[in-house]
Specification:
The complex is a heterodimer of chains A (333) and B (337). Chain A is built from twelve helices and twelve strands. With 333 residues, chain A is of the alpha/beta class. In chain A, the strands form two sheets. Chain A has an eight-stranded mixed sheet with strand order 6-7-8-3-9-10-12-11, with helices on both faces. Chain B contains twelve helices and eleven strands. An eight-stranded mixed sheet of chain B has the order 5-6-7-3-8-9-11-10, with helices on both faces. Chain B has a three-stranded antiparallel sheet with strand order 2-1-4. The chains are: A alpha/beta (333), B alpha/beta (337).
């Protein structure tokens, strides 16, 4: 894995509350190659967003503890001081969020917010920053960029705000963009526009992207690789088409099977019973065991993420199980 | 199921819902919508935010009084009823909303929330009301232990079950589900969809299912109405909408929905619409979709397309519906068997 752009190794995140400390992710490991688009999926509460925030060094220092390594281009971000982190954040690694309205500053124009990012990292004049900001607005498909430079966030629609967020994140041409549910708050036709913008920019700038979402359809259409998280752990990692056709972890399979779009119309959906355990109720051994239809007594032992040939799976029964994927039984057979 | 002669449970005729906005102008959230909902069916309404689908849903159950047109329940105008009779009548027409957190009173136990509609109706002795509420809590798949808990102790999916239980206590004939599964994780969403289907069979319910999620609406609906900027642009059986969409907007919606299939199975060409929903205060002239329509010509700017039955039981408002239907359309995997 020497050619990886991002190499996350054993990333564990702990939150402190008073004297207590709880572990919210456990030994998360994955890699992203330069220019690669990787999807990070799982239900709410599986640790997707905190993982993204940890990569950005955005978790509150006093109330959280991060162990493990985050290598980006060979440098360990996890070991950096807040000051060193400020120098790379926004320049080499950027992040966009679900709700652009709360991520943008309402009292500055979007042009100022793009220029600010640029001038924080690059030695450019005010005029040059303005020109580059307008160019960034053009790149994300905002019409009349010269006029929009002076617009405030509230004057833009949801889709346009998300485009402005993307422009801020991309103006320094980072190597890695973390997109945390960037289209969840948008309508499906606007979502299609944003996905097209992101895909186009990745291809044009050779930028890698970690696409955090709960929408497996979006992952299928945008990503080449998929990382599934469950209860703070990576449970499966593999090429998107492989996982869609033949998921190796019962949780990945369950997520796919519960999609109404893939089921026979009006048929009972094979839902996953129960819900993601909280930190307090975390089962010993396999964390998915209480919800898993394939659980056996062996699953009471802790599971490790092992090589499955063309990916990684955290399930001791992966060799023997043939799990249904996105295709209906008769098609897959 | 339905017969040709049966009176629809809801008939909307040229319904318009208007809201005054600043500057003395009028926002026509719903503008000239006509439809029929038949007893026992699931009627899906799909559209983007701002298309008027929620307002339409509210109008169908008399939560919003139409400024134009009429809404009939079982062929009769509910607004002709006395206030007291209308209140009684409303019990048959219930709504489940998107956000169960906002729908449940945080200071009321689950039992009280579920029993509240019966308490308001005030027709049964208290012990009987409690018994019925507990029965419904169990029926929606919750442990009766939850009865004494408060909403904050429940997960989102459990809270949505509570909301379903409380509308069921009055044994309604029809439930409007307004984005009832939108806030839930996919596995929980599947659970709730299964529950709604079971309840429909058991209680003979009619659903008006409002959502922006095509996968969800296509899965559970018998017929689908597609809304755009206050108007229904297409209405047909789910199989027809999926296999042969006649409106360019429906086609774009179908193609924009991401599908979790491997790349070699995603044959369809995505139609990316330009721009966003125009303001409903000053909708475009002629066809409202023309500003974003890849097929728009001059005629679309001048003539409002007529609402017509282009093919049997397949209604559409587009001058060129026949051409759209003959174009190659996206195929969805689960859709028609």
């Amino acid at each position: 894995m020497t050619d990886a752009l991002l190499d996350v190794r054993d990333l564990s995140i702990h939150f402190r509350s008073g004297a207590r400390e709880v572990q919210v992710t456990r030994k998360v490991s994955f890699t992203i190659a330069p220019g690669e688009v990787v999807g990070l999926v799982g239900e709410s509460g599986c640790g997707k967003t905190v993982t993204g925030l940890a990569l950005m060094g955005l978790l509150p220092r006093g109330r959280s503890r991060v162990t493990g390594n985050i290598f980006l281009g060979g440098e360990d971000f996890a070991a950096m001081s807040p000051r060193q982190m400020r120098r790379v954040r926004g320049r080499r690694i950027s992040m966009i969020f679900q709700e652009p309205m709360s991520a943008l500053d309402p009292v500055f124009t979007i042009g100022e917010q793009i220029s600010e990012t640029l001038r924080a990292h690059r030695d450019v004049s005010v005029g040059e920053a303005r020109a580059r900001a307008i160019e960034a607005l053009t790149q994300v498909g905002i019409p009349e960029p010269e006029l929009r430079y002076d617009a405030y966030p509230h004057q833009l629609s949801g889709g346009m705000r998300q485009r402005a967020m993307i422009a801020i994140a991309l103006v320094c041409e980072p190597q890695l963009l973390i997109a945390d549910e960037p289209t969840t708050a948008l309508d499906v036709t606007v979502q299609a526009q944003i996905v097209e913008v992101l895909g186009g920019l990745c291809a044009r700038l050779g930028m890698a992207m970690l696409f955090i979402t709960h929408d497996l359809g979006l992952v299928a259409e945008t990503c080449s690789r998929l990382v599934t998280m469950y209860a703070g752990e990576v449970v499966e990692e593999g090429h998107i088409d492989d996982v869609l056709v033949r998921p190796r972890h019962p949780y990945s399979s369950g997520l796919l099977r519960s999609l109404p779009a893939l089921a026979q119309r009006k048929a009972t959906l094979p839902a996953i019973p129960g819900r993601v355990p909280t930190v307090a109720e975390m089962p010993a051994g396999c964390r998915f065991r209480p919800r898993c239809a394939h659980a056996r007594s062996v699953c009471e032992d802790p599971q490790s993420l092992v090589d499955s040939g063309n990916g990684h799976v955290r399930c001791c029964r992966q060799e023997e199980l043939v799990l249904p994927g996105a295709l209906r039984g008769e098609v897959a057979a | 199921m339905r017969t040709a002669t049966a009176v629809p449970i809801i008939t909307a005729h040229e319904v318009g819902i208007h809201f005054p906005v600043a500057g003395g102008r009028t926002l026509r959230a719903v503008d000239g919508v006509s439809l029929e909902v038949h007893r026992g069916e699931t009627f899906g309404v799909i559209g983007e935010s701002g298309s008027g689908k929620t307002t339409l849903g509210r109008a169908l159950v008399c939560l919003e009084r139409p400024a134009a047109g009429r809404v009939l329940h079982d062929g009769d105008d509910p607004y002709r009823l006395s206030a007291a009779a209308l209140r009684r009548h409303r019990r048959d027409f219930q709504v489940v909303f998107q956000d169960p957190n906002a729908a449940l009173d945080p200071r009321m136990t689950i039992l009280r929330s579920v029993r509240e509609p019966l308490d308001v109706a005030g027709e049964l002795p208290r012990a009987e009301r409690t018994r019925l509420a507990l029965e419904m809590i169990e029926r929606v798949g919750l442990n009766p232990e939850f009865a004494d808990r408060y909403p904050h102790e429940l997960s989102g999916g459990q809270k949505q079950r509570v909301c379903i239980a409380r509308v069921l206590t009055l044994r309604p004939a029809l439930i409007v589900c307004d984005e009832a599964v939108a806030a839930l994780d996919v596995s929980i969403q599947a659970d709730i969809l299964n529950l709604l289907a079971d309840l429909q069979r058991e209680f003979g319910l009619t659903y008006v299912f409002i959502t922006h999620n095509l996968g969800v609406v296509a899965h559970i609906s018998d017929r689908i109405a597609v809304m755009y900027l206050g108007k229904i642009v297409e209405l047909a059986a789910t199989e027809l909408i999926e296999a042969r969409p006649l409106h360019p907007y429906t086609r774009a919606l179908l193609s924009a929905e991401p599908v979790a299939l491997p790349s070699h199975m995603r044959s369809h060409q995505r139609i990316v619409l330009h721009g966003e929903l125009p303001s409903p205060v000053s909708p475009p002239s002629g066809c409202r979709f023309r500003t974003r329509c890849p097929m728009a010509v001059t005629r679309c700017m001048q003539d409002v397309p007529a609402w017509r039955e282009v093919e049997p039981e397949h209604f559409c408002a587009c001058h060129f519906a026949e051409d759209v239907g003959d174009a190659i359309v996206p195929q969805r995997p689960g859709g028609t068997p």
